Amino acid sequence: MSTYAQRVSAFIEGQGHATTLESPDDGNVTYIRFRTRGRGFTAVTNEADTGFILITTAERFPAPLEADAATYAILLAIQDRLKCVKLAFSEDRRSVIVNVELFFDGEDGYQPTFWRSVSVLETAVYDAARDVQKNAEVKLAADRFLDDVLRGNDR
């Protein structure tokens, strides 16, 4: 008899995506890693709750992100627009992590919305990367302008 994680993994592989499974603890929680559309994703399953899957991806930045009001506003605006996603910083603030939680009935209840959820994650992480990067560039340009003004340099 296959586990819940193995069934989810077989579903993903059935769509042509290789998976790797990792169970770091007692085996209840399993991380199913896969790639699609050039991006890595992880589906997290729990054998104790076969009506739930967490799907996650992240965008890594070359330098730590400013944890300022403008950046938080960007992430909250994306959450508000897409409703089902949650965005957060990694501990080192070099990544934006995007999650979607699927709650469903039945053993295979995740299947009708799984790939749609992956698409929503892709949209959210793309929007976060674009908007956070643009905010950082605008802030850098403003800082340079202020530095020039304070030094008395005219542009």
Characterise the protein shown here:
With 155 residues, the protein is an alpha+beta fold. The protein has one domain (4-151): Yope Regulator, Chain: A. It contains three helices and six strands. The chain has a six-stranded antiparallel beta sheet with strand order 1-2-3-4-6-5. Strand 3 (39-46) and strand 4 (49-60) form a beta hairpin. Helix 2 (69-82) packs antiparallel against helix 3 (111-151). The longest helix has 41 residues, at 111-151. The protein is elongated, with a radius of gyration of 20 Å. The chain starts with a helix and ends with a helix. The mean pLDDT is 88.
Show the helix and strand layout.
Layout: H1 4-14, E1 19-22, E2 29-36, E3 39-46, E4 49-60, H2 69-82, E5 85-89, E6 95-103, H3 111-151
Antiparallel strand pairs: 1-2, 2-3, 3-4, 4-6, 5-6
Helix pairs in contact: 2-3
Quick recap:
The protein has 155 residues and is of the alpha+beta class. It is built from 3 helices and 6 strands; from the N terminus they run H-E-E-E-E-H-E-E-H.
Number of domains: 1
How would you characterize the largest beta sheet? 6 strands, antiparallel
Mean pLDDT: 88
What share of the residues lie within helices? 40-55%
Question: How much of the sequence is in beta strands?
Answer: 25-35%
CATH architecture: 2-Layer Sandwich
Distance between the termini: 71 Å
- Evaluate the radius of gyration: 20 Å
Which structural category do the helix and sheet elements fall into?
A: alpha+beta
CATH topology value: Yope Regulator, Chain: A
